[in-house]
Amino acid sequence: MTILVGYDGSAGARAAVTLALEEARRWTCRVRLVDVFEWPVRVGPATTRPQSWPRTEAYRGAERTLARAVSALADANPDVPVDGLVVEGPPAAMLSDLSSGVRLVVVGSGGSGLRGRPGSTTRHLLRHALCPVLVVPETDGNATTA
């Protein structure tokens, strides 16, 4: 079985990875980091702005960044199989779609929600994921370097 982690390199995502690794050891699962690439890049609550670099170059950059994170995690956690996947689309919908057939989806709580409330991606996952969803609060000291 697989534990899916929504991963964007943020402190919240790193905290989610830490907890996902613990759960993977408990259940003898693999961990898959998923970076959801959305183009054009969102720059505000309801706006988008085309960027100056081509989409393909930005996508490859996301792949390289994720590959470095996966490599670092695999080296530091040889007892847990870790891999990564970059997908393109709206984060909430893509993570929900990928939740089919996995043991657990783990995400950090650090979204753009107001007053500490979960952001729209987290709220969507809690309603639409096809497996349990674990939301990890972002706190100092609970994040793995990745």
Description:
It is globular and about 40 Å long. The protein has one domain (2-42, 52-136): Rossmann fold. It has helices at residues 11-27, 55-76, 91-98, 120-128; strands spanning 2-6, 30-37, 82-88, 104-108, 133-136. The protein contains four helices and five strands. The chain has a five-stranded parallel beta sheet, with helices on both faces. It is an alpha/beta fold and 146 residues long. The protein starts with a strand and ends in a 10-residue tail after the last strand. Pfam families: Usp. Residues 2-137 form the UspA domain.
Looking at the overall shape, the CATH architecture is: 3-Layer(aba) Sandwich
CATH class: Alpha Beta
Q: What shape does the CA trace take?
A: globular
Stretches with pLDDT under 50, minimum 5 residues: none
Distance between the termini: 22 Å
Per-chain topology:
Blueprint: E1 2-6, H1 11-27, E2 30-37, H2 55-76, E3 82-88, H3 91-98, E4 104-108, H4 120-128, E5 133-136
Parallel strand pairs: 1-2, 1-4, 2-3, 4-5
Question: How would you summarize this macromolecular structure in one to three sentences?
Answer:
The chain is α/β, with parallel strands linked by helices and 146 residues long. It contains 4 helices and 5 strands, in the order βαβαβαβαβ.
